[in-house]
Amino acid sequence: MSNYDVIVLGGGLAGYCAALSAAEEGATVLLAEKCDEGGGSTVLSGGFMAFADTALQRELGVSDSPELLLEDLRSVGGPHAQEDLLRTYAAEQTTLFGWLTAKRLRFEGVELAAGQSAPRSHSIDPGQLILTLHELAQANGNVTIRTGTTGVYLLREGENGRIRGVTVEESGRLEDVEARCGVVIATGGFSRSERLLQTFAPQQARALRVGGVGNVGDGLRMAWRHGADLHDMGEVKGTYGVHATECNNGQEILLIFYRGAIIVNREGRRFTDESVSYKLIGDAAMRQDSPVTWQIFDKKIFDGSIGAARLFDAAAALNRGLLIKADSLQSLAEQCGIDPQGLLATVASYNEDARSGRDEAFGRDGLCHHVGALVPLDQPPFFAYPSAVAVLATYCGLRIDAKARVIDVYEEPIEGLYAAGEVTGGFHGKAYMTGTSLGKSAVFGRLAGREAARTGRA
């Protein structure tokens, strides 16, 4: 039986952060990734990480703080979000930013997005993020990386003892691997498992299925088998803004509604406050008669988005052939298959409200999370982005504590078992702040690796 101090299951952002932090503590680490290459859902993401009070924000004149971040996390997540996890994120994220930038990772800008009272979505190329961490892990003499290696079972001392290792499968062969200090589960969610989605998220039956191809819930099941508690399983939500016909595995997303666009159904009617989390907008979109709805905006909003991060750059979307463009709202509606009279009436009413500063229909009081003045849609040409809802990530799963230890159904830590990233629940609650999916993966991945190494070697 081969043995290591720490075994990390999963080669996404959480897994690499766990492996590197454990190695920095002097632990020997096995990083086992089931696919032929790592990345998981991370490389399919928009590449935002939520940080507060960073040098980049200050350089750009953005005033933010860990305290305001924590306040926003509480507001977005509601009563179901675990306070200890939110506090840990707010306390650890600034140090994490420094840890990542010290590893030659470069954040390119900061955007205001869902759930944020100040621009704190730090933009980074997600592919480059994983590549850099992979290269650092490869160069670290304490880390062994095995791809095409799937975790199958957790090994335990007796019925209720310490988790002592993992049974892995590689090329059809099973192998037991010992973990002297602990096992970190970072296997992602279950957006690719129809069975688990039907069990926990039947309301997402019409949503597109995207996300990491290996995200079938195997890590979740492994811990569940040993009595691990689950959290937020009723909060699986789809992401709104994925292109309805050119999804590209969830990578074609536009969130131009946070720059002032409105969202309408095929009757041409708005059905939501466009400034709230795109998870909540996704819920509202799933209740419409058609699975396709449209983001509608004008030249002002289009011009203002030029050069923005990919998720907000309408000009880039137009260049990729993803927008519908017309000189009038009537023509735009006809091209989209939207009821023209409905759209004309909706835009007229919204423009009147925008000029008065008060949205009478849905209470929209800002472009995004109470920030920014409403923008009338009155300058042709006009644009439409056909949008769908996609389950990109599941944002629920294993219950963990502030040390990333997996908690069982009796509210006790399972000794030797840690988890981080999308496989965990409890952090997001009812909705989602942009940048906290990657953010929590890195925060709790780093924490899990460190805790496993320190606790097991104490």
The first-to-last residue Cα distance is 23 Å
The CATH C-level name of the largest domain is Alpha Beta
Q: What's the structural domain tally?
A: 2
Mean pLDDT: 94
The global form is elongated
Largest sheet: 8 strands, mixed
Total helical elements: 13
Sequence stretches where pLDDT stays below 50 over 5 or more residues: none
Number of extended strands: 19
**DSSP strand (E) fraction?**
15-25%
Cofactor: FAD
Domain FAD-dependent oxidoreductase 2 FAD-binding: 5-438
Organism: Propylenella binzhouense
GO biological process, one term: steroid metabolic process
Notes on the protein architecture:
By secondary structure, the protein is an alpha/beta fold. It has 2 domains: 2-235 and 395-457, FAD/NAD(P)-binding domain (3-Layer(bba) Sandwich); 239-391, Alpha-Beta Complex (Flavocytochrome C3, Chain A, domain 1). Helices cover 32% and strands 22% of the residues. It has 13 helices and 19 strands. The protein has helices spanning 13-24, 55-59, 66-77, 83-101, 126-139, 194-200, 218-224, 278-286, 299-305, 314-319, 329-336, 340-356, 436-457, and strands at 2-9, 29-33, 48-50, 109-111, 121-123, 143-147, 149-156, 163-170, 173-185, 208-209, 230-231, 239-243, 262-264, 293-298, 324-326, 382-391, 397-398, 405-407, 413-419. Strands 1, 2, 6, 7, 8, 9, 18 and 19 form an 8-stranded mixed β-sheet that branches. Strands 10, 12, 13, 14, 15 and 16 form a 6-stranded mixed β-sheet that branches. Strands 3-5-4 form a 3-stranded antiparallel β-sheet. Helix 1 packs parallel to helix 5 (126-139). It is elongated.
